[in-house]
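Case study 2.
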Amino acid sequence: MIVAVTGGKGGVGKSTVALNLAAELDAVVVDGDLSTADLPRGTGPDLHDVLAGRVDPMEALEEFWNMQLLPCGRTIAGARAVDLQAFEPVVRRLDRAAGSVVVDCPAGLARDVGVEISSADVAVLVTNTSKAALADAARTHELAVDLGTPVGAVVLNETDESTYKQIRTDLTQQFNAPVTYIPARSDIRAAQEAWVPVRDAAPESPVRERFEALGDRLRDCRHRLQRRSRR
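Prediction:
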């Protein structure tokens, strides 16, 4: 199963959700932000090299906190040299090898975002409760629908429980997907600053349970997809 973690607006926590979701799914995490990568840098070849045909994707994987990470380069020249048409074959190959792949998509709605969402089996929308972020999430949802990629979940990041309860029903109807929330907590910030999954940095945190539940929800999506493919 390939999961695209997306949402439109930058700075809403997509990379944090992608990293933690990959940890819960035991998935390869791919930094799909070709021009402004957020996940940790690698020490060898990266996604730019893979998409330019210089390196085999399996050779670019790096061990990272008991996970496998495909990092992305940071240069404009590297981003310009990639072949976007190679993205889906690359993540499909990683999926066959690892069982699951989580793609940290870039902000915005440029062509690379569409390619990454269309390459996925399911999308996870990440947003906060600001009007701008919700509007961008709605546009990203429309794009996913147009591309035929179902939205498996919506994550309200840094949102308190009261606000979540007030808007959950409306957002569930708007996005036609279950909605969860991640509260603003110091243990999450500390884990994020160190790029450590919450399950490793703060295993007793209630936030760990939320990421675990999100992972279970995506596993259910995978089972449904597998049953559908057998028909």
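The mean pLDDT is 91.
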